[in-house]
Description:
The protein is built from 8 helices and 12 strands. It is an alpha+beta fold.
Amino acid sequence: MNRIHTDCSTCVNTSCFIKKHLHLEKMQDFVLQKNTFPCKKGQQFMIEGAPTQGLYFLQKGKVKILKTGIYGREQIVRLAQEGDTIGFRGFGTSNRYLIGAAALEDTVLCNFSNNIMQQILKTIPEFTYDMMLFYAEELNKSENKIKKIAQMNVRERVIDTLLHLLKKFGQTNHLINVSLSRKEIADFAGTTDEQVTRIFSSLKKESLINIVGKKISLLEITKLQAEIAEHRQF
Length: 234
């Protein structure tokens, strides 16, 4: 991949884990050693089972994080946008990635190698402590998603996915700011694209959603939230 130059000090992603800690002593030395490169839509930049190449921080774009299930079926375990961290599931616990990742649109990624990340963790205690809290929060999110998938029926899982997309990416002109295929939505909701198509058809007939190309508009957010209210505690 062709490397490009970016400056962390002028980055607008205030939610980026690196950006949040840029004020710490010694961080400036480490950020000068990062690699930044573009990734085209559809390009996979992390392959499940491949040797780890440190952590990625998403500067621009959107990414899907993948896990291979039984019979080789792809499962989307997480969706990422500007400021998110990618690759932490394998870092520090394995020398190989436990997940894969691919760009949903043209994307720019910042990468800190295994060696650099280990140096940061060993020399900057505040960064290390916050990283521990980050891992705990992500583990909690994963456990909650497993609970919901186990207890929701298919329609509820699809509705929960739509509400998650709205919360994660927001909307413009009443359309959620991410383009996903039926299969990608199914892979995230833990169902099939045929089921997603049928449920979308039902939701449209009930005037709960509208679809424009790959973009989705939630017409009755309150009603959709009410339909899965008993599961929202998770």
